[in-house]
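Form 7-S
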Amino acid sequence: MQAFISGIVPLSTTKWFGKLSSVIFFGGCDFRCRYCHSPGLLEFKQEFLTDIKKITSEVNKYTDIAEAVVFSGGEPCLQRLALISLAKNLKNQNLKIGLDTNGSKPNVIKELLSMELIDFISLDMKSSLNTELFSNVTKSKTFFTRTDDITENIKQTLKILKEHQGKVEIEIKTVIVPSLVYKKEDILNIGELIKEINCTWVFQQFDNQKELVDKNLKNIQPASKSFLENLKEFCLKEYPNLRVKIRE
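Output:
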């Protein structure tokens, strides 16, 4: 079986924070987030086609050191069969399995969780699920897919995560982008969606130094540490049971 895999980072502690992991980057994504700094991963490029046996063999070189493997991208859930096959193979190597996802494919996430193939999920909440804002941030609407359909899928993913909390480590990540994803009311709307999920909510600082899909955002300065701290305090006043962390 082949999959669109752009590459592997042998050892990293950033995708599953604090856990030494190999990271597999899937090519292809159904979003075109303006602040995304991986524009090279958005398409299913022919050059990415790789036999998954080769991927498994590469990861196995580091199983004596790595604790886990994280599937990232791109959006891994767009390649369901390859994702499940890799998860099974690597799980059999006694590795913990993590998934970095935008949440647009709830059925795939449910299947992975039901098969007990996933130990950690990092869900990128790109913005609140307000139709206009979400569409502006993700540019995910197509001729065949309405924004409301996509946000409904993400709501289904959140419901699935709630059903499986306690069985899997859950991280919800929101990149704070001044002028785009930064208003308190929008962030609170995310808090309302996740308040009953046992998770860690990470505020990720926007990075304008990397390559971006929307080049105009290069002129936007990242939020200051004090702004992020104030945003965290504001959210905790409203939702004191949430665990909120700041990651620069």
